[in-house]
Every structure is written in C-alpha cells, then in structure tokens.
Design brief:
Serine Threonine Protein Phosphatase 5, Tetratricopeptide repeat, 6-stranded mixed sheet, alpha+beta, about 575 residues, 21 helices, Gyrase A, domain 2, globular, 6-stranded antiparallel beta barrel
C-alpha cells in the first residue's frame, strides 16, 4: 500500500496523475449584471477578469468571517463559472440569492462531471488529446473547447502544487476521456484519495470544513494573499480585512509545521507550550516528497516565525515541531514561469508606458510564486504610480518578510508613508533602508575591490554622516535613529569596536528592535567574538518572534546556525 502511495505521488510530481473531483462542483452565473453583482459581494476585484481569465475569491460576513472561498472564471462577457468545494455550495448559493434582488443574474449548480489532471506533463497530455484546440496558459484561465461534438470547459488550476487542470464535461464522457489520456505517450496514473490528501497538504492548500470554516476570519486562513483586492469598492467585511492588513496581524493564522517522529498529531489537537495554548493542528500527513510528517496549523502570532524548533504537547503527548512557511512543496516550473512573467511585465512597461497590463501580469507572477521579491517590488512601484498606496504598502510589507535585505522595499515604504502623511513611519523605514544600504554597500565594495579613490570618497561621506549623527546624540544620547545609524556606519567602515556602544544603547532603550540585534550580532562577528554574537542573535530572535518581525529574523537564524556549526 505504501509503495503504491509513493508511486502515485512521485508520478504527479514528475509527470502526471488524474482523479475525479466528486467533492467539487461548478456553479454557473449568467446575465448582464453578473459581474457587477459579484463585484459587490466578493473580496476580489471581479471586474478585472477578462473573458478566458479567472481569479481566486471569497465571500465574508460583516466580521470578515469566511462564508465561502472559490474561484471565478469568465467564459463569456456575461457568464461565469464558479468552481467551489461541494461542501460550500449550499452556503454560497444561499448568500448570493439572499443578496440578489433586481439584478439580471441567474445562478445554477451544474450536474456535469469534474476531472483533475495534475502534474508538470498535464499540458502535454491535453495538447495530445485536444489537438489544435486553445488551452488555458495561466493559472485560473479557462477555455471552452468542443470534443466529439460536445463542450468541455478546461480550467488551469493546481490542487497539488504542480501545474494542473480541471475539466468539466457531461457525465457520459468521463470513461472515454480517461481512456484517451491513457493512450498518450506519458499516460497519467490514477491518484487515490489518500495520495491526493498528501499532495494537497504538501502544497499547503486548506479545505473548507477541515482547515477552515465560518468561525475563521479570512486573514487567519492566508487566503487574503490571493483572494482580496484592497482597491475595489465596498463589500461585506471589507473594513475588518483592510484594518487587519494595515495595522496588525490576526492572533492566530494558518502556517506549516514539520513534526518529528512517526506519529501524526491529532486533528484539532491544541498545541501547548508549557501551560500556554500557542496553536491548533488541522490537516496532517506523512509527506512522501519531503519524507517527514507535515501539518497545517493555526499558530499564535508570537510563534509564527519560520524555522523555529518547539517542544510542545498535543493532547497530553509530547511532540517536537518546527514552524514552516507554506507551501511545503512548490513546483520549480511555477517559479520559472513567475520570473518570465516579471520580465514580460517590465518589457511591456518599457515599450508601451502602460501600467494596467504589467500590473495584471505581475499579480499572476506573484500568484505563481509567492516569494518572487522582484515581482512584489515592481508591482508596488506600479501601484504607487496609480496612487493605490494602501495596496502598495501591503505589498512592500510582505516583501520585507520575504527578503529581509530588500532595500527598495524599505525605501518605497518610506515614500508611500510620506505621501499618506505618516511622517514617523516614513522616517523609520528610511532609517531601515539606510542601514541596509550601508551593510550591502560594504559587501559590494569588498567583492568588487573598489579603487582607492572610491573608497576615500565613501569614507568622507561616512564621516559626514557620523558627524551628523553625533550632533543629534549631543542633544539626545539615546536617540534611536542616530545610534542605529552610527552603529551601521561603524560596521560598514570596519570601526567595529566603536559600533558596539551605540547599538547596545538602541537595544537597551528599545528591546524589541530586532534590526539592532542583527547589526550588533554582525559587529560581534567582525570582532571574532563568537559567543557574544550567538547570545545577541538568541535575544534578537526572541524579540523578533514576539513582535512578529520577519525581516531580520531569518538572517539572524541563518547566522546563528552558521556560528553554531563552525569550528
């Protein structure tokens, strides 16, 4: 049995697998007011969908609690297909009809069959079976083709982390379609429910009724990264979602756990750290791809830093777990395509000075690869050019979590905050950008062996900055920005001993300022004081974890690991 499970999963990861989607369904929405009505009810910007395109979406109540999550696919100018888990069909239809009054839109649950084809070779199989037909090219794209005289709707959607497609057709065609797939040069393997569940969890995809339900507010589930527009008109729950995004984070939110040992943690098991509840376990499975037990879990914000080892109890049993970013598995093909879309968007902007098309393409790039820092940065810049500052700020915040060394994210945040009149926030981000500039400049200078003249010029510039910061400190010896800036400069120019005191001052006055711990740890490293560096990083990691500040966290974790493993 285990070998069969392994074979099925390996086949999906390296080639292709198929399975009937009996737990999903299609709802059609048709009428001249279809998209204007859906725009008022859903969290994403439905009006941006062109014919042949689709998007992730959701509906929430006034407290931003999840009613349903789904995807919408525009097949005609006034017609959409809504792909949703069958368990949510009743809730979704009930909500839509309750708010549907005079609008010209009709909803109907379709009776056709759904079949999933998942894996990197799924496009090749479709091209062979549906020769000379237009097929979807990007996630959530939809095409309608004619096969054997009947219509087949094909939606490009991954249910496993690899490239995939979902086909909707009349009941009588399922066996015939599968037989056609099996005749191809790379026939897909049938994927049973247990293998499909492992693939889903590896891909970090939550399901309604198991990993989330109507008790969860949408930002807890992670769906806001793909299913929310912060620039569209009003919808139910918008104020709560926007407030959480701008000013804070939910107390508990879904992320990954890697679990040591052979035992699965119990479903809905409460994670206890000592006597404190820090989370709740949801779906879990032994990952065949990663060769370890992985789980989806709601984790308290004080413990959501990635790659942190914890010894917890779940249902009175001890477990060793490590926090992980989702997904656990992501296809390399998707990342490559994301990079390609980024290049395409920048080229279009360069040649045509157009913003709408590049923005749409960059959203697709981010959907494909949630860690594509360059796409975040470019999208943030383009959105700011359209004065969509709230979404630009949200993107840059996310970018600082993904890439702690991304200077432009901090610089852009400073600019956007300044435009909104948030002067203090703007100055803080500018200080962070300056510190990162100093750090990266010295690394770049050493790598390229700048000529003596350039070195002297920079030293003069640094001395001017040192003088400026010292004047500030004469007025207020505890000034945070001046001490941090001074410590940054001394680290950059190699005056490490002088950099200790200002950075210590920052930490003494601001114990949650994790970026200061990072620079102080680096300074200790430069002074070859390994013990002090490790101790500083430990305190910094604790501070960053408590604050939920992901920017310097990974850097400190990596540096501490290197120090601990060095001889």
């Amino acid at each position: 049995m285990e070998q069969t499970l392994q074979t099925e999963i390996d086949q999906v990861r390296s080639s292709c697998g198929y399975f009937p989607l009996e737990d999903w369904c299609i709802i059609s929405a048709e009428g001249k007011d279809t998209f204007s009505f859906l725009q008022t009810q859903t969290t994403n910007d439905v009006l941006q969908i062109q014919v042949g395109q689709g998007q992730h979406n959701a509906i929430t109540d006034r407290q931003a609690r999840l009613i349903a999550n789904f995807s919408i696919h525009r097949v005609e100018e006034d017609k959409a297909l809504i792909l949703v888990e069958a368990s949510q069909k009743k809730l979704l239809l009930s909500h839509l009809e309750n708010y549907h009054f005079r609008e010209d839109v009709r909803f109907a649950a379709l009776n056709g069959k759904l079949l999933a084809l998942q894996g990197p070779k799924s496009p090749l199989i479709l091209e062979k079976v549906f020769a000379n037909q237009n097929l979807p090219e990007k996630p959530n794209d939809v095409t309608q083709i004619i096969w054997n005289g009947n219509r087949v709707d094909i939606i490009m959607k991954s249910l496993t982390g690899d490239e995939g497609h979902i086909l909707c057709f009349q009941n009588k065609f399922q066996d015939k379609l599968i037989q056609e797939f099996l005749k191809t040069a790379t026939p897909p393997v049938e994927v049973r429910e247990d293998a499909r569940e492992v693939l889903r969890i590896e891909a970090g995809i939550p399901v309604f009724g198991k990993d989330m339900d109507q008790k969860n507010i949408l930002p807890e589930t992670g769906l806001e990264h793909t299913s929310v527009s912060y620039n569209k008109g009003c919808y139910i729950g918008q104020e709560v979602i926007a407030r959480i995004k701008t000013y804070g984070a939910p107390t508990f939110a879904l992320m990954g756990l890697a679990v040591e040992g052979a035992d699965l943690p119990p479903f809905d098991g409460v994670l206890q750290l000592g006597k404190k509840k820090i989370g709740t376990v949801k779906s879990s499975a032994r990952s065949v791809t990663l060769n370890k037990i992985v789980a989806l879990a709601y984790i308290h914000k004080e413990h959501r830093s990635p790659d942190v080892d914890l010894e917890v109890t779940i249902a009175n049993k001890s477990f060793k777990v490590k926090t992980c970013l989702l997904p656990f598995y992501q296809s390399q093909t998707r990342k490559d395509y994301s990079k390609k879309l980024l290049t395409q968007a920048l080229q279009i902007y360069k040649e045509q000075d157009d913003l709408d098309r590049p923005i749409a393409i960059l959203r697709e790039a981010i959907e494909l690869d949630a860690k594509n820092a360059e796409a975040y940065e470019a999208l943030g810049v383009f959105l700011s050019k359209q004065n969509k500052l709230d979404e630009a700020i949200a993107l840059m915040k996310r970018l600082t979590e993904i890439n702690p060394k991304e200077i432009m994210a901090r610089t852009n945040l400073s600019v956007y905050y300044m435009k909104l009149g948030r002067i203090e926030d703007a100055e803080n981000e500018k200080a962070e950008a300056t510190a990162l500039q100093f750090e990266q400049a010295i690394e770049k200078n050493m790598a390229k062996k700048l000529e003596k003249k350039e070195v002297l010029r920079k030293e003069k510039e640094m001395e001017d900055r040192v003088g400026m910061f010292k004047k500030v400190l004469e007025i207020d010896p505890k000034d945070q920005v001046a001490n941090f800036g001074l410590g940054s400069i001394y680290l950059e120019v190699g005056r490490y001993q002088e950099g200790l005191e200002p950075l210590k001052t920052v930490i003494a006055e601001h114990r949650d300022y994790s970026a200061a711990y990072l620079l102080l740890g680096k300074t200790w490293e430069k002074l070859l004081n390994k013990e002090e560096a490790i101790e500083t990083y430990k305190k910094g990691i604790a501070a960053a974890s408590k604050k939920g500040d992901l920017m310097p966290l990974k850097d400190m974790q990596n540096r501490m690991k290197q120090l601990l493993h060095s001889h």
